[in-house]
What does this fold into?
Amino acid sequence: MYAGKYRFSRRAEVLGKSVYDHAEGAIMLSVGSAYPPILPDLSREASDSAKAYVAEVMQYGPLMGLADLREAISDYVAADGVKCTPNEVLITNGAKHATDLACRVFTEPGDKIIVTAPTYMTTLQCLRSHGLTFVAIPQDKDGMRTDILAARLATMRANGDALPKLLFDVPDFHNPTGITMSLERRKALLALAEEYDFVLIEDDPYRRIRFEGDPVPPIKSMDANGRVIAVGTVSKILAPGLRVGWAIGPNEIVRRMAMQKADGGSCPFTQRLVVDAIRSNKLAEHIDLVTDHMRVHRDTMIDALAEFLPDAQVRRPNGGYFLWAELPEGVSGDALAEKAVEHGVEIGSGRLCFPNEDPGNFIRFSYSYVDPNTIREGIRRLGEAYRNMAIAA
Amino acid sequence: MYAGKYRFSRRAEVLGKSVYDHAEGAIMLSVGSAYPPILPDLSREASDSAKAYVAEVMQYGPLMGLADLREAISDYVAADGVKCTPNEVLITNGAKHATDLACRVFTEPGDKIIVTAPTYMTTLQCLRSHGLTFVAIPQDKDGMRTDILAARLATMRANGDALPKLLFDVPDFHNPTGITMSLERRKALLALAEEYDFVLIEDDPYRRIRFEGDPVPPIKSMDANGRVIAVGTVSKILAPGLRVGWAIGPNEIVRRMAMQKADGGSCPFTQRLVVDAIRSNKLAEHIDLVTDHMRVHRDTMIDALAEFLPDAQVRRPNGGYFLWAELPEGVSGDALAEKAVEHGVEIGSGRLCFPNEDPGNFIRFSYSYVDPNTIREGIRRLGEAYRNMAIAA
It folds into this structure.
């Protein structure tokens, strides 16, 4: 009745109104949601907090977040070599919220941001809503190609072009490719941030979900000059429903980010639950549990792809929630995603993850949400869809 | 160490980095926080929800909000004569978040928005962060002067100026003036929205906190043509810590607002607690409790002002959380607020509530947060500060 009647903003047109409708009844290999059978029981913590901390958890919370949580987070990241005071920790409603606040603090419409191609699709939407344009840099097995980035920046400077103010990346178990950036590249990125005066958003939801191999130090742990905003969340390690994340950066920056919160401060109740989970060691135990399950999920999905869709080339990630698959050249990821729905399985077309040009033949999988038998059945159906598509073509 | 080193955005400079530092140890007559002695005990609901609804409350929630809550809210507002389907209800992280999302969906930097002068100070900050400029309209005892607004709009149209896309107002127990808009003015506003093609944000946190007199129908209840986004919250009627609010409007609009959420959806856990509180009648009982206490708080503050600061002219509100006081001409609200801190009481200078020019001699009080004895003591100190200021001048 009202369609087309309103004068919507440009950013409203960019993001549209789909509210992520999913394919009804399909096996969901497309969403990085938590694995339902191991969602934590926080009923004891919830009841205790609602009673013992009523004046805190039912009241407006401080814009920066609860002091106890900011301290607990600074302890939590210390184990990764990140040194920060609680004053440098801002609590947010999840990691994406932190990235949005960083964009609010640093960018104007038309500004450039450096991202990998591909990168995290939902963050791309957020960056687009800020009117940003993309300096898109490819990856190899060691992460973002810093040599290519350096060359691009040098050219931009030589041409007198406006230089990017921000860089966004997921250096550990990258979403969607699963790649972990090498130490050398991390150092190179930091050096470029210094040389070209940009701030680096290190989005790190997956670091602790490591299946094998040794961790690489976070970029933030090497950040001597306040060039990095380290972004984290409990969504992938405890429960997305809590909506608790954080940004760690110079107080000058995170205070300004706090001022841009549009919602009167993050929920103090769920913040208190996270403090409790960290202090009681429940978080650490839950991370082990998630890691054990996700390892099996990854293996199941890789094996099933080898069996049912051997044409897809997949890189084996050492952690995280995602697989990234390359289809033979000329095979459309969009078309396969569409056909897959007819066969009762939902996957993500790689197109959603590319900031600018889409090579066209990539697929994003998440193995986090459904159980191993269903993963296998989903990939079996996908293989069927793939063969039907080939026959039709 | 890093100060001045970063290239911050314009909106970061507008909002600054104060994160609302309060005067340490002062009596707080400046904040619309909940009254601590009556904060609800939701420990039973929290424990039940964390157990019985674990797959819902610990997981990502739908961007639009929980279906049960959207239904409960549509029932809740039906009592005020607002007819809407759950499809027209978007759950947000409080009322301010809803206003921010509406700005994201409708405005570009430089656009105009209609507001009362004075208006809600924190929303002003949010509107400024969107780069909006203000069409500021005065109020009388019946609310926004729609005759003045009509004349301004007619002039703008005649001059070929860009017309405002949005209007923001708090028609019930206005923040900060406490005024309730008359039925006639509400109808006039709706007619102007039709005539000049703008969307009206009806911010309504206080409606149910009525001390005496009869309610006036919400503007939304008369909105035949989808011109109104009705914004609500449980912050003033149950608990601000839950961070649960809503926006009611045409599905075309609220779907687009959902897409602009930067945080992966509002917290499903606290949403479930609100569903529970509505269904168990706990919310209705709590509204009665809050209303009884706030009536005493209002009376106490008005009596104390008559005793200790008779120079201040105050309008008696029939509900809500705030008092608005006019000082004699030439007496500075800023100076009194500053002097008040020296005397151990924090009030808000009226300046913060004015979109454009500040008459200079207004004060905003909130009576919600401290108990009646402390309200009286706070106003006694303020009277002392006022007399000291007069002696110094």
Chain A has a mean pLDDT of 95.
